[in-house]
UniProtKB/TrEMBL annotation:
It comes from Bradyrhizobium erythrophlei. GO terms for molecular function: efflux transmembrane transporter activity. This is Membrane fusion protein, multidrug efflux system. Its main location: membrane. The keyword Transport applies. PANTHER family: MULTIDRUG RESISTANCE PROTEIN MDTA. Residues 111-181 form the Multidrug resistance protein MdtA-like alpha-helical hairpin domain. Residues 71-214 form the Multidrug resistance protein MdtA-like barrel-sandwich hybrid domain. It is found in: Cell membrane. Residues 306-361 form the Multidrug resistance protein MdtA-like C-terminal permuted SH3 domain. Gene3D superfamilies: 2.40.30.170, 2.40.420.20, 2.40.50.100, Helix hairpin bin (1.10.287.470). Residues 218-300 form the Multidrug resistance protein MdtA-like beta-barrel domain. Coiled coil: none annotated. The lineage of its organism: Bacteria, Pseudomonadati, Pseudomonadota, Alphaproteobacteria, Hyphomicrobiales.
Amino acid sequence: MKVPKIWIAGLSAAVLAVSGTYLWREGIPFGVMKPAAKSAPARPVPVTAGVVKDQDFAISRVGLGTVQAYNTVTVKVRVDGEVQKIAFREGQDVQVGDLIAQIDPRPYQAQLHQAEADKARDEALLANARLDLERYSKLVVKEFATRQSVDTQEALVAQYQAAIAHDQAVIDNARVQLGYTTIVSPLAGRTGIRLIDQGNIVHASDPGGLVVITQVAPIGVIFALPQKYLPEIVDAMQGGALVVSAYDQDDRIKLAEGRLELIDNQIDQGTGSIRLKAIFQNLDGRLWPGQFVSARLLLGVRRGPVVPESALQSGPNGSYAFVVRQDSTVEPHLVRIAASSNGEALIESGLAAHETIVVDGHYKLRPGARVVTAPAPVAPARERAASTAQGRE
């Protein structure tokens, strides 16, 4: 008996439908089934490696500081008058006693001459009174003059003596006022922008001045550090003066090196910080009043394992680093950081000198992962010399 083709087609469709439903329920993709391939071994992870160095490490504390002039003075006039001469250039270096400005001295010269004339007059009167006293004293002996006339003449002599002393004081004051008309620099420093032009009338009561002079060699830097560093700073000062280095605001270029001058006598309760002052000779003028700098206070030098900061990672249990073992697999080591500076960290514990560690490429690593290492690139000498970083515990 011959089966119709339409029945064969219907039966085939039913078999396919039942097979597809079974495969869908079992979670097997419907399609051409291929035998499962064997899993390939994990490929080594390419990383950059470095060696733990055993070297000296500078322990320093860094704070933001402001440069302050060692001395600053606003030159003001002390007498009234016309400014006849401005004797300095803006930005000029001046020494103690250099002429800054000249006030019209003629009114004060006249006052001095008047006081001197008054003294000369009183000296002449005193000389005459003394002669009269001498005459009266001789006459009273012969009873040609009364004792009262002698006493009166003695009082007149004393009066003229007091007048001469007063005249001398007036002369001294006039000379001082005349001296104030010549304005000189009270310190060695650099002049700023001129505040008064020649020809102006100035007064001793004016709130402004002629110019501001700042002493820039030597110069000071005021910077702040957290109060937790105070005990170790005090301990380090017992061994002598501490070195302070000033860097630019970007912490890249070293500007000057000086010494710690003092620790402020109180802690700022608002910020919990202590202020310190360092003195720099600044002979090359690289520090400028009002400039923001990064001040690095050197507390000492320790020797131990030193690694790049890029080799250290943060985890739930603290900092760690991947150590490359002999079989090219990695193992994480928990580390304790003693200090960090200039892109490097001094390790208190967790790593030993000459161990190989992963410096870059951590994001693909897991404990026991196999790696293929490449040496860390060496920074150019200029870049190493210019780079600095903020020290911290």
